[in-house]
Amino acid sequence: MRLIKKSLVLLSLTMLVISNSVMAQTTKIFGNIRYNHVSPHVEIKGVNPLNKDETKNRPHFIFSYNNNHQLSKIINKSFNIKKKHHLASFGVFKVVFTYEKNKETRVFFDTKDQPMANIKGVFKEIYQINNDGFKHQLNFYDKNNEPMESRWNISEYRWQQHNDLVIENRFNLKADKQALSPYFPFNTTGIKYDQSGNPHKHFNLNDQLQVVNNEAGIAYYQDQYDKDGIHTKYSYFNQNDKIVNNEWGFAYAINNYDQLGNYIDADRYDIDGNKQQSSRLVKNNLPASDIDKKEITRISLGYLVALQQLSPELMKEVMHTELSKHFISTSSDGTQKIRPTTYKQMIDFAETWNKDGTRFPPNPSNKAVILDSYNNMASVKLISDNWYEYLHLLKINGQWKIKNLIWDYNKQN
Description:
Mean pLDDT: 89
Radius of gyration: 29 Å
Number of domains: 2
Number of strands: 23
Strand content: 35-45%
Order of helices and strands: HEEEEEEEEEEEEEEEEEHHEEHEEEE
């Protein structure tokens, strides 16, 4: 009996060790997912592997695998470290993968384990796979399991192999062919993978599957990766293999990453090697520069000056057309409600409100205090003879504008 008990204890310990070993092998943690602006045909790959201790205070993804070494789940704890791309991101907290014969299904969940639409706007993705393991079709479904279109008006992807390319076509629910994306007019495309399985070149093809220029004069773009699978550079070429500028005026971009391997921004260059203005948030401009502070103050006070001096043109200059301005009014019975003022009303007020010249003192007291500023945003406290006001300003296309405003009467006067 003792021998049996001892054997059972040893068996239990052995099973525990095996179980822990299996668990350790079925979960991996990565700092990033390989960047993909090419196609959903590209396999999901974790890059920048981390150990558990390294995940405590940094973004990461948790990959889980089934007994067949297939992805079964991805938990997204990336904390919005990078601008989300329709093909490179999930836009959800959890992705669950299931497999049947010749089929892979992906469904998406929020932090409360409730189904949600992913960044493409779809609830379920089903891949069809042939006997050789090649993914040849993808279809999108809504929360009722009905076919649907993505935010790019695509309901189905189809792929086939042709020489060393994977040929891709996309269709809506009416079976009409769709471009790669609404902002990039590649139609039938050819994907060329490198030896590491990274999408290396992406071609625009005609009906004969020949490489041709699209309407912007681009025939393909080329991606480069480092030895760890981090996306480092992308370039644009015409059908004669000559580097060209794209629609946004640059020919190639070199990606920048921080010490943790997280994307910061890209340095962009034209065909002559001239560097474009960087998209990064320049740290020495955070908070706002002295020049910006002067402009923030001028725009904030300009709102009052426009009323005082009957200047609708100045009011148009300082106010954003999507202005949100509000005041809490109190009725005779003490009931309070929020009262809005529109952009159009502000323009009208600048024409008429002080027409009799009695709305403000002869020498108005206008004071603007910048409470805080960060990159393209600023918060301002405005004090005048008439009102106390709090303003939110945004810098859009190089111009500061008043976007939000709440106010109350200056009861001290």
